[in-house]
UniProtKB/TrEMBL annotation:
<protein>
    <submittedName>
        <fullName>ABC transporter permease</fullName>
    </submittedName>
</protein>
<feature type="transmembrane region" description="Helical">
    <location>
        <begin position="148"/>
        <end position="171"/>
    </location>
</feature>
<keyword id="KW-0472">Membrane</keyword>
<dbReference type="GO" id="GO:0055085">
    <property type="term" value="P:transmembrane transport"/>
</dbReference>
<feature type="transmembrane region" description="Helical">
    <location>
        <begin position="256"/>
        <end position="279"/>
    </location>
</feature>
<dbReference type="InterPro" id="IPR051393">
    <property type="entry name" value="ABC_transporter_permease"/>
</dbReference>
<dbReference type="GO" id="GO:0005886">
    <property type="term" value="C:plasma membrane"/>
</dbReference>
<feature type="transmembrane region" description="Helical">
    <location>
        <begin position="67"/>
        <end position="88"/>
    </location>
</feature>
<feature type="domain" description="ABC transmembrane type-1">
    <location>
        <begin position="63"/>
        <end position="275"/>
    </location>
</feature>
<keyword id="KW-0813">Transport</keyword>
<feature type="transmembrane region" description="Helical">
    <location>
        <begin position="100"/>
        <end position="122"/>
    </location>
</feature>
<comment type="similarity">
    <text>Belongs to the binding-protein-dependent transport system permease family.</text>
</comment>
<dbReference type="Pfam" id="PF00528">
    <property type="entry name" value="BPD_transp_1"/>
</dbReference>
<keyword id="KW-1133">Transmembrane helix</keyword>
<keyword id="KW-1003">Cell membrane</keyword>
<keyword id="KW-0812">Transmembrane</keyword>
<dbReference type="InterPro" id="IPR000515">
    <property type="entry name" value="MetI-like"/>
</dbReference>
Amino acid sequence: MQIYGALLLLPAALLLGAFAYLPIVLTTVRSLFLPETASQPAEFVALENYAYLFDDPVFWKVARNNLIYALVTIPASIAIALAMALLVDSRMPGRGFVRMAYFTPTILPMIAAANIWMFFYAPEIGLFNGLLGWFGIDGPNWLGDPTFALPSVIVMTIWKEAGFFMIFYLAALQTIPPELREASALEGTGRWEHFRRVTFPLLMPTTLFVMINALINAVRVVDHLFILTKGGPNNATNLLLYYVYETAFSFFDRPYAAAITMMILVFLGLLAAVQFTVVDRRTHYQ
């Protein structure tokens, strides 16, 4: 019986080993070398790449950008997604159309969405500056000014992700027994109190799942940065995974890119452990 169970797990184990664990091992090994050249093979330097990483001002600027990006996009996307799910779960006219409108940004490819928002942010012919021009306001260069570039990328990300997270909350809301709302109404409980004490605690498993996905999304940003800003101006919108891409394929320093990747993996592992220990304790499973 144990052999039968092991055989059932074997395909998944092989896929995990080939596409998850083996790349981690190879990345770890590569981070311990200097980049090879046509005339010189890769030289083993142990932790030298990690020492350089901690002294790299660009890395810390990118890490700060990513921290701001995550601290804004994760709670904002979750809050908006939950609000949209509560709205479209109620009895409202045109509910199906509203659901479709909320979910439409999710099904757009990121490259297409980035090109749409590039038109919105264009300084001369863009939609946002055109609207500001009606009120006599000279709009900024949204993607070319370091002050506005990162907030502009954040706004586009929230618009893209909120509809995706809404689907999970909507599915979770439809599993909550309506008898709980009826019991709250008999007790004279208001809507906000019912949401705070009944609905939201029952949505905690979904919230934990969405938080983990939002965290992963906040770190693996490459495609729309490539279209919108390429990390500029002056690294104002450069984020960790794009910096890894830039280091490996623009500067051709793959060992240093591997070292940055390992730091990201360690950070995500620690953060996931905190989420599963702290948040999971407050999660009510049915």
